[in-house]
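re: ur question from earlier - yeah i can do the single chain one, its not a big deal. heres the input i used so u can compare w yours
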Amino acid sequence: MGFYKDLEYSQDKRFDRAYANIFKNVQGIAAVEDIKFQSKGIDKLIKLHNGKVVTIEEKLRRSHWNDICLELKSNVEKGTLGWLYKIEADFLAYMTPK
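and the output i got, formated as tokens:
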């Protein structure tokens, strides 16, 4: 799968409902499609009523597993570090399929 197909798949509304319950003072939630933010592991921007913006990295598994997948390397042959080392978001939201 390509980047944009993965991005489309991962935009599950259950994330937004969870944020509204966790952060009681949500003013707005915006999906991030800008590749600069995406490369830093920022998928969502949550604006709070106090003006603070919280950044979220979202991970949605395609199958149900009894573990949590943390990407240490995105390309083993090249030794490219995975998202775990590149993430700059404030929080990681992790979800399994419905």
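Strands lie at 26-31, 44-48, 53-60, 73-75, 80-81, 91-95. not sure if urs matches, ping me
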